[in-house]
Amino acid sequence: MKYKDLKKKPWFKFMSNKYVLVLTVFIVWMLFLDSNSWLIHRELNQEIEEIKANKAYYQEEIKNDKQILKELDDSIEIERFARETYFMKRPNEDIYIIEYEDSLKTDKDE
User: Fold this and answer.
1) Using alpha carbons only, how large is the chain's radius of gyration in Å?
2) In 28, 33, 46, 65, which residue has its Cα 20 to 30 A from 98's Cα atom?
């Protein structure tokens, strides 16, 4: 196809308009090449959503920890917590930890 024939096409006339060319370059620049491009904004929005999810998770954990701290105000509860969690014991006391077969790790589990 020759250039003269191409010039007669309506889409070529539209695309060769200087305003359309400048607008096209501007749009491409703003979407992909600029430091504040659409791609960067999309990545930042995804990070914001992840951070919001983390915030909700940690707020729930803080709420649970505050509840545990409230329960541990009693010395009996502190002792129970220390015995169950850290396997602490009183002097002259023996502790036996019983593990069941289904709670042991095997080569198949790993």
Assistant:
1) 34
2) 65
